[in-house]
Structures are given as structure tokens and as C-alpha cells.
Amino acid sequence: MRSRNPVFSRRGFSRDNGYAGFNAAPQAGGPAVTTQGTPYAQPTGNPYAQNPYAQQDLQQGAPPQAPATTGRMTMDDVVLRTATTLGTLIVTAALAWALLPVDDANISRSYGIGIGAALIGMVLAFVQSFKRTASPALILSYAAFEGVFLGVVSSIVDNRIASGAAMQAVIGTMAVFAAVLVAYKAGWIRVNRRFYGFVMAAALGFVLLMMVNMLFAVFGGGDGLGFRSGGLGIFFGVIGVILGACFLALDFKQVEDGIAYGAPKGEAWLAAFGLTLTLVWIYMEFLRIIAILNSND
User: Fold this and answer.
1) What is the C-alpha to C-alpha distance for residues 292 and 224, in angstroms, rounded to an integer?
2) What is the pLDDT of residue 52?
3) Minimal CB count within 10 Å: which of 51, 54, 127, 276?
4) 33 three-class SS
5) How far apart are CA 143 and CA 126, in angstroms?
């Protein structure tokens, strides 16, 4: 079972149509066996308990062979590629902030460029989501275009609605990331099948509700059903942050299982892609909450 982000588009780690999902812990279905330092699950009748990355040869009673440690994903790989992806996003966001002014004379042009970049980023994200393997070029291109959009939107909110909003949203996003990481490593968050089902159901309902609100806003004018303004807007913004935190926990579990199962090194780009999607989601929700709070002053 795979971890997914709120956009419902990121593929899980895969190999020959298999994947290491959050519910496929190395210990599932039986004790973990270690051969040459690489853990894998003993084969059982439960498909979620088997290691999809292990080189298995069950014919004639031969025991499954653990995958070679070379060319396998490590935590350093995940950290490096996540830093590269986020770094690309931050650089393009800073450039958009500096080069696309949002004063009265230029705001329409800058906002139009930002929306165009967001649409291109969305297309690139969906293309990557349906690819069988990670494409660094696609992922970094997504980060670049998404950065342009975030730079423009952040500049608008920071300069025209709430001074300092962008930095507050960044600090809030970092705080959520750190808190979820600590809670996950301490075992306070148990990521299992029930957790996955609850988060996915809640996220699906949230996205559908926001889509309905957007349709009412487009065809009825105003703020639609009011889910993105006033008290309701703040409430749903907080719900969005909580959902983002839950997806971070799913991402952490997926990365942990991928490393434990010996996922191919290239899969670290998928981890970077998923973490970036989740962090962008959380940042946007924080930025929206800050904008609503200040617009109500």
C-alpha cells in the first residue's frame, strides 16, 4: 500500500510493479532476516508482508536472497535529493519575488505568470506521477515552476495583505515538519493501515469540498460557500495543515521502508518529490491562514 500526497498523484516506490508501502514493514508477517546487513521479510501468504525489492528464488525450496547493498537508496540519498529539489524551488521563488513586481501596475501580469507556472508545474507533477520510474528532470522542472508560483503568491500576500506572512508560513512549515519527525521517530505516531485509510478518506473529502467551493466561487461569484474566508476559512486551513502533517508521517514511513527493503537508489528522487509536494501543501495552508487573519483585522 502506497503513501500518497494530498494531490493524490505521487506513485510509491516501485520495482517490477511492486512497491514498498508504509504498511509493509520489514517485520510484517514474520521475523526479519538479515543477510550481509540487508533486512528483508520472510515470505508469507500476505503480499504486504513480502519485500518487493528482495531478489527471491523460491523454486526448489531455495531461500530468498537479500538484495545487494550497492546501488540501494540510503537516507543520505533522500536528504541530498530533497535538498536539491527544495533548493530549486526556493531559488526560483526568490527570483520570482524579485523579478515579478506586484504593485498596482504589474500585479496582473505577475499573477498571470504565477498561475501559468502553477499549471505547468501541475502537469509535470501528474506526468511524473504516472511514470514507472523517477525522472530527476521532471521533478526539478516541477520544483522550478512551482517555485515561480509560490514566489508570486507569497509576494502578493506579504506586500499587499500581511507584511512578514511568507516568513511566518516558512517557520510554521518547518515547525510542523520537525514536530512530525520527532513524533514519528519517538513512536507517538503509528502509521498503519487504519491510519492510511483515515488520512486518505479525510483528504479526499477535503479536496472534494474545496473543489465544490471553487465551482460556486467561479459560477456564483464571491467566495463560493465561504470555506476559504472568515472563520470557516481558518478552520479549514487548520484542517489542511493537519492533513499535511499526516501525509508527512506517511512519507517518513515510506522512506523508512524503502531503505529497509533496499529500494533502488533512483527511488530517492520519488521521496524528494513526495516530501516537496507535502511541504508546499503545508506552506500554502499556512499562508492562507495568515492572509485570512490579517484580512479580518
Assistant:
1) 15
2) 53
3) 127
4) strand
5) 13
Q: Is the pTM of this model over 0.90?
A: no
Q: How many Å is the maximal CA-CA distance in the chain?
A: 76
What pLDDT was estimated at residue 34?
37
Cβ 163 vs Cβ 292: under 8 Å: no
Strand runs labelled E in the chain:
14-15, 18-19, 32-35, 38-41
Three-class SS of 86-105: HHHHHHHHHHHHHHCCCCCC
Which pLDDT score is estimated for 66? 43
Distance CA 84, CA 1 (A): 27
| Predicted confidence (pLDDT) per residue in 68-88, tens digit | 556 899 999 999 999 999 999
**Residue 290 and residue 284: Cα distance in Å, rounded?**
10
Query: Alpha-carbon distance 52 to 25, whole Å?
Result: 11
Cell of 216: 460556486
Q: pLDDT value at position 69?
A: 53
d(CA 56, CA 291): 54
Q: Is 210 helix (H, G, I), strand (E, B) or coil?
A: helix
What confidence score (pLDDT) does residue 133 get? 87
Coil/strand/helix, residue 72: strand
What are the strands, taking DSSP E only, across 8-105? 14-15, 18-19, 32-35, 38-41
